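Lab notebook, design round three. We kept the backbone fixed and only want residue identities now. Task for the bench partner: fill in a sequence for the structure below.
Input structure tokens:
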């Protein structure tokens, strides 16, 4: 007998990866998912509804959800039949770039409120139900910057590192409840994400930043970043497909550019078979660029950088390396 469809709640579906995932799951030919595609501003639902086509109102419903608001989360869950979420996809996220002296603490806190506490807020809301039913799957759209810091992305990377630490820790105790955690760590993806960042920096003045740093940011970092997105940016479809989030086909594991087909059909978005899962965490890493030069390799790179991001060394002495920390002389 066919299993009843799983309820999948996805945050941040107005554009990009969230929209693509919502549509692909809702259009699953075997109709295994009831997708609750959420966004903070329902005024933006047009693109999602158009992409969903006939799935709209059948296997896909659109709901309002601001991950930064307790009330919004409670209201959204109250509209889901029985309040039961089988699969939670924490996708909503915002970026922030620039020299930190020129960024306000409020802007930094907004990034953490959305990327980190937004995911935590949703997990806290759905976890009791998942534990009671002893089944669930939590998918977290992190970033390659959750694994490696990148210059001028300190706060964004920190928010993704925080997610990684949180979910790696949580995954361990959830195993006994048959609840699985997947971290997806894409490289650059061609969505509105980059455009929003560029718009942000086009008007920002970064007050208090020294001229050398500002010049390096504007003349070296920004053009290199644009080039990176242009040359190696994945599409949201790539991310959904290669991260094992897609409902059909057998899952592949992408680890920083290397594709190793999984030995068996692991049924994405369904709880992993414990025997197939190596540890509590399933971590498909999506990136279509070469592996990063880790700071531990010799000789250390002059500046920790996103794989593929070609930057000239910054002015001044070489930065502190993880392998051999050197303290600046007073
Ligand atoms: N694009 C990349 O290069 C890249 C790379 C690695 C990881 N990621 C991660 O992938 C995820 C999706 O990003 P994307 O590339 O698809 O970017 P996107 O097109 O900008 O989508 C981000 C989504 O998050 C939503 N959002 C922002 N704040 C929210 C809030 N408080 N409550 C609910 N939704 C909120 C946005 O809604 P609005 O339309 O209302 O702003 C939008 O729907 C993010 O977590 C991002 O960090 C992206």
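Proposed sequence:
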């Amino acid at each position: 007998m066919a299993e009843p469809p799983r309820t999948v709640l996805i945050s941040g579906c107005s554009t990009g990866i969230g929209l693509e995932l919502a549509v692909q799951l809702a259009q699953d030919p075997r109709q295994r998912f009831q997708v609750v595609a959420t966004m903070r501003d329902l005024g933006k639902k047009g693109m999602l509804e158009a992409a969903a086509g006939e799935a709209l109102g059948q296997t896909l419903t659109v709901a309002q959800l601001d991950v930064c608001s307790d009330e919004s989360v409670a209201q959204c869950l109250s509209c889901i039949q029985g309040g039961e979420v089988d699969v939670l996809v924490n996708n909503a996220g915002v970026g922030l770039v620039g020299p930190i002296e020129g960024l306000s603490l409020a802007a930094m806190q907004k990034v953490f409120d959305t990327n980190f506490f937004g995911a935590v807020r949703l997990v806290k809301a759905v976890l009791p139900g998942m534990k009671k039913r002893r089944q669930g799957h939590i998918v977290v759209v992190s970033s390659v910057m959750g694994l490696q810091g990148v210059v001028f992305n300190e706060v964004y990377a920190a928010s993704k590192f925080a997610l990684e630490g949180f979910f790696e820790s949580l995954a361990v105790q959830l195993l006994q409840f048959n609840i699985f955690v997947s971290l997806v760590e894409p490289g650059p993806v061609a969505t509105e994400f980059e455009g929003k960042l560029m718009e942000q920096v086009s008007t920002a003045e970064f007050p208090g930043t020294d001229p050398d740093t500002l010049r390096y940011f504007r003349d070296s970092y920004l053009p290199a970043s644009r080039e990176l997105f242009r040359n190696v940016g994945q599409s949201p479809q790539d991310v959904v497909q290669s991260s094992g989030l897609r409902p059909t086909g057998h899952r592949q594991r992408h680890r920083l550019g290397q594709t190793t087909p999984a030995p068996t059909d692991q049924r994405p978005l369904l709880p992993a078979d414990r025997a197939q899962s190596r540890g509590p965490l399933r971590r498909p890493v999506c990136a279509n660029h070469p592996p990063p030069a880790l700071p531990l390799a010799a000789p250390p790179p002059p500046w920790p950088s996103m794989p593929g991001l070609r930057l000239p060394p910054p002015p001044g002495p070489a930065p502190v390396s993880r392998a051999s920390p050197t303290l600046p002389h007073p």
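Keep this in mind before ordering anything: The longest helix spans residues 105-133.
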